[in-house]
Amino acid sequence: MRIAGALAVAGLAFAMVACGGDGSAAAASGDTGTADPTPSPSSSTGTTIACAPDGAQSFDATCSVERVEVEGKILLTVFHPDGGFRRFEQLPDGSGLAAVAGADAVTQTLSGDILEVSLAGNRYRFPATTR
User: Fold this and answer.
1) What is the reported pLDDT for 115?
2) How do residues 9-32 score in pLDDT, each as one tens digit?
3) Residues of 21-51 as b/e, b for ≥16 C-beta within 10 angstroms?
4) Which residues lie below 8 Å from residue 16, measured CB to CB, with a gap of 6+?
5) 76: closest CA among 92, 105, 99?
């Protein structure tokens, strides 16, 4: 039985190597194998905005934002200091932002060059350019 067990383990190890190894390549690339992994902020890109997450009364410049273009859509991911995040899509006509996922209503107020967005007890202040 020991030889059969050793052959089974050796066969499994060979299959892992042939299929890409121990997963370290996927882990190094950030690929978790899921369709929509939980994002994490990149240290090389993004900006900081004022936010009041989780019902906070005052704003603080502690949220980071990453902007990416996916299939012609501009997506913003806002990262909270506690690791939470929200995704928004910049509306094509430039009139504001829409939540990417969820059924929570988004409210927006433009005041000068600041777009304040509220969603599910979270508030964000994005720099805005008016036309």
Assistant:
1) 96
2) 333 333 333 333 333 333 333 333
3) eeeeeeeeeeeeeeeeeeeebeeeebeebbb
4) 22
5) 99
